[in-house]
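Record 1 of the preview.
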Amino acid sequence: MNDLHAAAKRCLDAADPAEKVRLSFETWQRLVAGELAPDEASPPAEPMGPPGRPERPRLISPRELAQRGLGTPQGRAALVHAIAHIEFNAINLAWDAVYRFRGKPAEFYRDWASCANDEARHYTMLSTRLAELGYAYGDFDAHNGLWDMAEKTAHHDTARMALVPRVLEARGLDVTPGMIGRLTRHGDERTVAILEVILREEVAHVAAGTRWFHFCCERDGIEPRATFVALLDEYMHGSLRGPFNHPARREAGFSEQELEWLETLG
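->
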C-alpha cells in the first residue's frame, strides 16, 4: 500500500492504542522514506464518524468529570490520564487531516503526519508514566471535546485549521506551564519532564495550524484575522478565556493583533 490517504485511514481506524501508535510510527517512517504519497485515485474520504478507540475510557460531559487535586497520587495520575487522552485524540486528529483533506501540497501532509508521529510519542510517554503510577489508559473517565470539534469541521478545511490546532490544541500552550508549576511543587519531576517535552513540541503543531489556516485564507481570498474571529464566534460563540501564553502563541504564529483581540474575550 503506497497511498498515504489509505495509510492514514488505517492509523485512524486502529482501536487498540498500542496498534495505533505502532502504525503511526510506521506510516511516518514510510512517508519520510518516500514510500508513501497521496494518490489521486484514492477513494473519497468517508463521512466523519468516531475514530478507532478502545472501549475505555468512558466518555462523559466535561462537567461530569471528577475534580481531583494534585496532592494525592491518584490526583496526579488522573491529570496524566487526561493529558494522555488529549494526545490519543490528537493522533486521530492529525491522521484525519491527512485522510480527509485532499488536493493539498505535499508539505500539508508531511506536517500533519509529523504531528501524528509526535502525538503518538507523547501518548507513549504518558501511558508509560501512568503505568509507573499504577494505572492504565482507560482507568479514568474522559470527554470528547477535541473530536466533537473535528466532526463539526469535517466539511471545512479552513475551520478545521483555525479551530482545532489554533484554539483547542493551543489551550495546551496556555495551561501546561501552570500544570508544570503545580506538579513541581508536589515533587513530581518525572511528569514535569514529560510535559516540558510536550509543551515545546506542541508549539510546532499549533504553528502548522497557523500556516495552513493562512494557506486556506489566501486560497479563498479572505482576511485571516477577521476569518478567525468569525469562525470562533460561529463554532464556539466566542467562548474562549485566558490566560493566554503570549510567548508560545507568538512562536506558533499568532499575530500581535490576534493576541490583543484574545485578551478582549475575558
